[in-house]
Hints:
Layout: E1 6-13, H1 15-26, E2 33-37, H2 41-44, E3 47-54, H3 59-73, E4 83-87, H4 89-99, E5 103-105, E6 109-113, E7 125-129, H5 141-153, E8 159-163, H6 169-176, E9 181-186, H7 189-201, E10 208-212, E11 222-228, H8 231-239, E12 246-258, H9 262-271, E13 274-282, E14 285-292
Parallel strand pairs: 6-7, 8-9, 8-11, 9-10, 11-12
Antiparallel strand pairs: 1-3, 1-4, 2-3, 5-6, 12-14, 13-14
Helix pairs in contact: 1-3, 5-6, 8-9
Amino acid sequence: xxxxxxxxxxxTVGNEAAEAVAEVLSRYAHRGVVIEAGPEGWNAGPVIVxxxxxxxxxxxxxxxxxxxxxxxxxxxxxxSTPVFRPVAExxxxxxxxxxxxxxxxxxxxxxxxxxxxYAPAPEDVVIRLDPGMAFGTGLHPTTQMCLVALEELVYSGxxxxxxxxxxxxxxxxxxxxxxGRVLAVDNDPVAAKAARDNVVANGVQETIRVVHGSLxxxxxSYDLVVVNILAxxxxxxxxxxxxxxxxxxxxxVAAGILADQEPGVVAALKQEGLILVERxxxxxxxxxxxxxxxxxx
Length: 297
């Protein structure tokens, strides 16, 4: 390799397209993707999706594939032209470390990057994650709202299904809160591998099974189902029988939904017997808690 060991790619994009852009970059990135707030913060403007490509013999081809994929995505969402910047090996590792620090979410959840020292309080639920692994570093509002929701919903012995697990952060939280069994599913092999690594690093491999697959390959019903993806994907899952995976009296946590998409998602879930009982909103994003067979009367 030359003195340029890595190529940083960053894409400035609206909230609604951030996860889709992250999915594109994750196919070629080393150690995954990070979604960051833009200069104006999460609420006021676009976000930045950032990843790093190894400067190997596939770099030119991967760079072209990224540009082509983002061009196609731009036909659906407004996506800015990707910005590429060479990064030396000595600087690369520090870039990830600078961007992620210990994060406190909800009452007791603590997200600890593996290189950060942290002395936990007795009541802390500490989740150890490596930098930039797949999706779900805990930084994005959708992830944080799901962490808060699970802290309230998970009880000892509960059976949990995490669809679109990404880094595995939500599955790991559920296991550490006392879940009896957790199935974590992702259709991205990079994410599934990252989730497995994080599960082992957190010592919860006896509770969590990570599967590379999709909703169609899941059977049975669960006490708690969590889907932190995109509104469009959630609506597709509803058509594919998502509600059947929630046992009677069970709960579904749905996130990755922009506020203006909420009515459509709520209506689709209600039609399948999943009634909204609680919601959170941070910036432009909402997180919905629905229950199967719940009656408001």
